């Protein structure tokens, strides 16, 4: 596909600028000096409006999105996002609000609607998780993790505890140890058992008096719910360690289990995964953090509170707060979409979403097991992890080859080479929004790839062949990106 510069033709115009209405003498008086002026005109493409519209429309079709097809990224939860929430986020009364707009002015309720959305979203999230209080400030999942770890540090600092270690199971999300380390803690990894989960006996070996907290994803990154979670929580609390819930996988248990009831003290949620708002492409995200009562006083400022007359205000009187985590109120538009999503589905709808997510995943698990190795082939939750290790050994076909083959089949590849506890991993999460025919089409594509691995491995080594460019040097592109047009 030609670049917009290659389509440029001298003298072709795509815009008709209006006549300048500034007096000539004023324009001349304010003209920039030579030191601020270009030595030659900017090298901009000369194209018509039709050229521009067709170029970028055609370019947009080259990009894969969840609106275009199935996006089975395990852990990242790329499910379809309802369009009505997008419309609501664009309502002028919401999209046009300035964050410095006064909360109350001369009796008028200028920002009460936006504050109401934030306040009521907190109420709904408390119901979903069982937590006692929330902050909506964190702007992504990892940002929520950092906030949660800072809350753990504040709790122990307030009590005078000298604790320096955060325990993280090897089946946790990759950002967990990074967040803990960024907050100044030493990270210790706890190995999983042959069941695919962290077991209490192993946990005890690592649980010392220096442990400040434990970060867990439950279900974990191999899609398994830890049945020992309550025992683990009790062991941690006996040492005055806090239990942190990475809520990225809440989509699997929403409506069935509340993190607070499982023994967790802190939770972050990914509204851009669980609650139907867009995820990927660099944002925007939202990672609100909930806490049990004993940690509420450490939450970031400001807190949204309600007066006796029903009006809402921002409370900055929080002397033990960890301070600001993000400017103003976080990603408000994402919160608004999640709020609308929860109101539309209601409690039963959110529960159904979890049911269908788990059902879709186990349907794929059973179907794919006919041709693929599944290290933990038992009832799972929201995602299932395959391994291509046998195909590497027998046919020389790697997980990367499989991923590229899926592109030619019309599917975005799943997450690859993660979690690290499974070699040659393919991490698949269909989400609740994919219908049966899409799941069957994915199974068919994976079956054909398994056959190609055996009978024609070279075809997978050369994949993809249906894209504008063939297989790229991904390491080279990441380490030495070239984003400049050739001379």
TrEMBL record:
<dbReference type="Pfam" id="PF02347">
    <property type="entry name" value="GDC-P"/>
</dbReference>
<protein>
    <recommendedName>
        <fullName>glycine dehydrogenase (aminomethyl-transferring)</fullName>
        <ecNumber>1.4.4.2</ecNumber>
    </recommendedName>
</protein>
<dbReference type="InterPro" id="IPR015421">
    <property type="entry name" value="PyrdxlP-dep_Trfase_major"/>
</dbReference>
<dbReference type="GO" id="GO:0030170">
    <property type="term" value="F:pyridoxal phosphate binding"/>
</dbReference>
<feature type="domain" description="Glycine cleavage system P-protein N-terminal">
    <location>
        <begin position="110"/>
        <end position="300"/>
    </location>
</feature>
<keyword id="KW-0663">Pyridoxal phosphate</keyword>
<dbReference type="GO" id="GO:0005829">
    <property type="term" value="C:cytosol"/>
</dbReference>
<dbReference type="InterPro" id="IPR015424">
    <property type="entry name" value="PyrdxlP-dep_Trfase"/>
</dbReference>
<dbReference type="InterPro" id="IPR015422">
    <property type="entry name" value="PyrdxlP-dep_Trfase_small"/>
</dbReference>
<dbReference type="Pfam" id="PF21478">
    <property type="entry name" value="GcvP2_C"/>
</dbReference>
<dbReference type="InterPro" id="IPR049315">
    <property type="entry name" value="GDC-P_N"/>
</dbReference>
<dbReference type="InterPro" id="IPR049316">
    <property type="entry name" value="GDC-P_C"/>
</dbReference>
<dbReference type="GO" id="GO:0005960">
    <property type="term" value="C:glycine cleavage complex"/>
</dbReference>
<dbReference type="GO" id="GO:0019464">
    <property type="term" value="P:glycine decarboxylation via glycine cleavage system"/>
</dbReference>
<dbReference type="InterPro" id="IPR020581">
    <property type="entry name" value="GDC_P"/>
</dbReference>
<dbReference type="GO" id="GO:0004375">
    <property type="term" value="F:glycine dehydrogenase (decarboxylating) activity"/>
</dbReference>
<comment type="function">
    <text>The glycine cleavage system catalyzes the degradation of glycine. The P protein binds the alpha-amino group of glycine through its pyridoxal phosphate cofactor; CO(2) is released and the remaining methylamine moiety is then transferred to the lipoamide cofactor of the H protein.</text>
</comment>
<dbReference type="GO" id="GO:0016594">
    <property type="term" value="F:glycine binding"/>
</dbReference>
<feature type="domain" description="Glycine dehydrogenase C-terminal">
    <location>
        <begin position="353"/>
        <end position="454"/>
    </location>
</feature>
<keyword id="KW-0560">Oxidoreductase</keyword>
């Amino acid at each position: 596909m030609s670049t917009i510069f290659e389509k440029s033709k001298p003298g072709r115009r795509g815009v008709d600028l209006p006549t300048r209405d500034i007096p000539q003498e004023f324009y001349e008086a304010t003209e920039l000096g030579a030191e601020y002026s270009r030595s030659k005109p900017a090298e901009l493409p000369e194209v018509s409006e039709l050229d521009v519209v067709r170029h970028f429309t055609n370019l947009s079709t080259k990009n894969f999105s969840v609106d275009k097809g199935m996006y089975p990224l395990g852990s990242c939860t790329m499910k379809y996002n309802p369009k009505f929430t997008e419309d609501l986020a664009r309502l002028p009364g919401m999209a046009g609000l300035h964050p410095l707009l006064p909360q109350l002015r001369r009796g008028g309720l200028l920002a009460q609607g936006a504050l109401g959305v934030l306040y009521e979203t907190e109420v709904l999230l408390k119901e979903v998780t069982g937590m006692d209080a929330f902050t909506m400030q964190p702007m992504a999942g990892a940002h929520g993790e950092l906030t949660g770890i800072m809350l753990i540090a504040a709790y122990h600092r307030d009590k005078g505890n000298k604790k320096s270690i955060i325990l993280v199971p090897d089946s946790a999300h990759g950002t967990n140890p990074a967040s803990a380390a960024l907050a100044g803690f030493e990270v210790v990894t706890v190995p999983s058992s042959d069941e695919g989960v962290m077991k209490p006996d192993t946990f005890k070996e690592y649980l010392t008096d220096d442990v400040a907290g434990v970060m867990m994803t439950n279900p974990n990154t191999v899609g398994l719910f830890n049945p020992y979670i309550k025992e683990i929580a009790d062991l941690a609390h006996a040492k005055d360690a806090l239990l942190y819930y990475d809520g990225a996988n809440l989509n699997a248990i929403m409506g069935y289990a509340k993190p607070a009831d499982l023994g967790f003290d802190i939770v972050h949620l990914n509204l851009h995964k669980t609650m139907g708002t867009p995820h990927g492409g660099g944002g925007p995200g939202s990672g609100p953090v909930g806490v049990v009562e004993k940690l509420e006083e450490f939450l970031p400022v400001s807190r949204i509170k309600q007066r006796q007359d029903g009006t809402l205000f921002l409370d900055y009187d929080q002397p033990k707060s960890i301070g600001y985590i993000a400017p103003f109120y976080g990603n408000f538009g994402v919160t608004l979409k999640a709020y609308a999503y929860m109101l539309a589905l209601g409690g039963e709808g959110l529960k159904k979403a979890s049911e269908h997510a788990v059902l879709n995943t186990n349907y794929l698990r059973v179907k794919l097991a006919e041709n693929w190795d599944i290290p933990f082939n038992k009832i799972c939750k929201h995602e299932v992890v395959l391994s291509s290790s046998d195909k590497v050994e027998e046919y020389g076909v790697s997980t990367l080859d499989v991923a590229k083959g899926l592109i030619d089949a019309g599917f975005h590849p799943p997450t690859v080479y993660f979690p690290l506890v499974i070699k040659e991993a393919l991490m698949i999460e269909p989400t609740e929004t994919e219908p049966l025919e899409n799941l069957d089409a994915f199974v068919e594509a994976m079956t054909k790839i398994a056959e190609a691995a055996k009978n024609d491995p070279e075809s997978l080594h050369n994949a993809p062949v249906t894209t504008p460019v063939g297989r790229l040097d991904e390491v080279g592109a990441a380490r030495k990106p070239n984003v400049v047009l050739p001379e």
